[in-house]
Every structure is written in C-alpha cells, then in structure tokens.
Amino acid sequence: MNQKMNFLDFPNAVQKSLEMVNPISFTEIIPISEAINRTIAKDIVCVKNLPAFNNSAMDGFAVKFSDAGKTLNINKVIYAGDKGEAVKESLLDNGCYKIMTGAKVPNDADTIIPIENCFDVTNKTVRIPEDIKKGANLRLKGEEQKEGSVLFQKGERITSSHITLLASQGLIMVEVYKKITIAVLSTGNEIKEPWEEADDEEIYNCNSYALISQLKEKGFDATYTGVVPDNLEESKQFIKNLKTYDVIITTGGISMGDADFVGEAFLQNGLETSFHGVNIKPGRPIMMGTMGKTSVICLPGNPLTAMVNIYLFVIPMLRKLQGDTSIYHTFLKAVNSSDFKTKKGRVNVVLGTILNGEFKVTRNNKYGSGMITALYESNCILVTNENTQNIQSNQEVKVIPFDSQFDKNQTNIFN
Ligand SMILES: Nc1nc2c(c(=O)[nH]1)N[C@H]1C(S)=C(S)[C@@H](COP(=O)(O)OP(=O)(O)OC[C@H]3O[C@@H](n4cnc5c(N)ncnc54)[C@H](O)[C@@H]3O)O[C@H]1N2
Ligand code: MOO
C-alpha cells in the first residue's frame, strides 16, 4: 500500500482491536473428557453437596468428644460406601465406631481419632487419648460447596480443576461456546513450504506454522489455507473464499512496498479498516478491520514480529471472541539483571527470560525482527511505554511470560 500510515498509539490500538470483536453466541454440549481449554457457556451450579455426607478424613475411631481419655467398646466397623443400617446411630455408653477414611460418620459421633493416636487397640476395645479436639477429622456435609451455590461462571476457560468439579457433581456433559474458526495464510513470492525445494533467494514459510502452533498452545484451532503470491488479483480471489471464517490472520505484504498487496486485496473485498499502523516496535505495519462478519488481522511478515504480536495483541481479541471473560494479559514482577536500551517514542516489546523472579533480556535487546532464534531463546516479553529509553539492572520490571494468565480486569503492563 503506497500511502502514508498514521500510527495509532498502542493502548488505543488495543482498545480498537477489542471493540472490533463480539463474543460468539453459538454453543454445543460436549463430554467433559474433551472439554479441556474450552470456554464454558453457562454458570455451573452445585447439584450435589461437597462432601455429600458427614465422613471421616482418617482411618481410626469415631467417638463422642466427651469420651476423651476413656477405654471404649468398638460398636461396629464402618467402611467407605456403607449405607442404611450400617451407618445408623447405635452408640451405647462408652461405645465408639471403628471407621475407615471416606466412610459415613453416624450422627451420634462428632470426632475422629486416627488409629495411630489411640492406645491398647484390640478387636473389641480401644483407649482414646485425653487431649483431643472436638470435630477433628470429621468432614461435614456441604462444608466445601452447598447445593445451589455457583461453582464456576460462564466465560471461564475449562482447566483440569473445572473438570474435577464437574465430575464430582456427576456431570459428564458440559455446554461450551463453539470454537471460533480461524484461517491462517502467508503471503509472498519468496515463500516456499517446508516440504518444497527452496533456492537461496527463497525462504521457508515458518510464520503459518508458528502462528498455528501458538494458537493451539492457547486453545484455538486454526486452519492453514496456503501462501498467497504478491499479486493483487490472486490475493483478492484467495481472500474472497475465506469469508466464512470468523477470523483471518495473515502475515506479510502489509507494509509500504510495491509488492505489499494484502491491504488492498482486503479493501477490495469490502474490508472496513479499524487501523493500519501502530506505534509499536516491532509490529508497526499491523492492520486490522472487519470484512462482513469476519475479523481480519494482518501481521507483518517478519516471524518475530508476527509471533510477539499475535501473543500480545491478538490472543486477547480471540479470547473475547471465544466468549472468555478473562482476556487481559497479566504480568509477573521480576528484577532486571542487566542494563539495556529501548527505543524512546514507541512502545517496545522486548524479549527475555524470566526464571525465579529474575528477568534477563535476550541478546542485550539487540536483535532484528527478522530473527527467529531470539524468540526460541526467550520465554517472556517485557513491554515499555513510549517514554522509556532504558531499563536498569536491579530495576523491578513487569514481565509477561509466554504462558501467563489472563484476567477480567485490564492492568497496566507497561515498564
Ligand atoms: N518503507 C517502509 N518499509 C518498511 C516499513 C515501513 O514502515 N516503511 N516497515 C518495516 C517493518 S517494521 C516491517 S515489520 C516490515 C513488514 O513488512 P510486510 O508485512 O510487508 O512483510 P514482508 O515484506 O512481506 O516480509 C517481511 C519479512 O518477513 C519475511 N516473511 C514473510 N512471510 C514469511 C513467512 N510466511 N515465513 C517466514 N518469513 C516470512 C519476508 O521474507 C521478509 O524478509 O516492513 C518493513 N519495511
Ligand atoms: O515493526 Mo517491524 O516488525 O519491526 O520490523
């Protein structure tokens, strides 16, 4: 596109990018065994108290607290799963139950003493220690969750903890939002697929594989649709066929070069541009907009640029679209280990590693956005504000790990 770009400042671009997308409303009901990383579409209400009955947390003896220090007759042995008559109250004076972990505790016992804390244990009698605590080791019905309470809310991403809770409720199916559909494509005459022959002047398409695998890491499925040559007509036709997708993500062909046709091809397909150009390093030529119901995200061709920006910029948008309520990046605090410079006047995305509270910048922050290994050497980003020109050693910094949490509230991530 041969026109002058107006660079939007990064916070504004983030706001616009999030305003561009609306949460999906279609849902489906799937087995909990397949629900990991999906977004829940309905609040889940507790239907079975946790625990469902008073039960013992230890193998030992269920006693009345008032019998501390006494030798008691063992009335019966109660096992986990016993019910009815087997767990009915039946204590006489100086009586107790022998009980196993997880077994129902009859209502006439109020305290459990682990077997190893008791004395003179025989098949018939046991001596209870004097110093016991009322209610010890007794798990009370509903103490963790009561029927009717909300266990978790719509818009949460399902983790193994959610699945544990669902199964504990006897729920084997769960309603989730349908997965949004994402098309990924690359552009450029110089691009060859990794399985093709490439001359010295040609390069292998790593962007599409990079983006699709990062999307997968973040719980999204994307379809690879191919490489579009640097040709307006062919780009237009290619894009026309992608209008059924919720999102199209492209890399390359978005800057100011004579062969940068991507923006024009989308415009000629009815794109309404939200912005083109962001005051961020790297990622200045980023373009976003909507084409009918499809959100269009055009990232620059440099692999490092595409990868950091899909994480910083695009994943929050996709989470919003997917119905997630936690969409904003969160940071960890760390101590910076050595001085480095950043470019004043732009928001800088700096690669580094965070380990045990220490941040180490990658390659002294001297790497190009066409580099690939700098990304591999890093496990996090640090984002500066436009006024920052250096980050000092021992300075406390905010760092966003590549696998960081997302939150409902927007927080200030800038350094
Ligand atoms: N006059 C200006 N020139 C450039 C500007 C500018 O503002 N004014 N911006 C520069 C910046 S910043 C970036 S970033 C790049 C982005 O340009 P494009 O989005 O048009 O990307 P391309 O030129 O197509 O490619 C850039 C680079 O990346 C390689 N590439 C592209 N696709 C892939 C792929 N699928 N896998 C691996 N590598 C890929 C491509 O070969 C180029 O080396 O523009 C600057 N120029
Ligand atoms: O903004 Mo471009 O991504 O650096 O090189």
Folded structure, characterized:
The two termini are 33 Å apart. With 415 residues, the chain is α/β, with parallel strands linked by helices. The chain has 4 domains: 10-25 and 179-321, Molybdenum Cofactor Biosythetic Enzyme, Chain A; 27-45 and 153-177, Molybdopterin biosynthesis moea protein, domain 2; 55-139, Molybdopterin biosynthesis moea protein, domain 3 (Molybdopterin biosynthesis moeA protein, domain 3, Beta Complex), CATH 2.170.190.11; 328-407, Beta-clip (Beta Barrel), CATH 2.40.340.10. It is elongated, with a radius of gyration of 30 Å. It contains 7 helices and 29 strands. The relative contact order is 0.13. Helices cover 16% and strands 29% of the residues. The strands form 9 sheets. The chain has a 6-stranded mixed β-sheet with strand order 15-12-16-20-19-17, with helices on both faces. Strand 19 and strand 20 (294-299) form a beta hairpin. The chain binds ligand LQZAQKY5 and molybdate ion. Ligand LQZAQKY5 is lined by residues 186, 188, 190-191, 203, 205-208, 251-257, 260, 282, 284-285, 300-303, 305, 369-370.
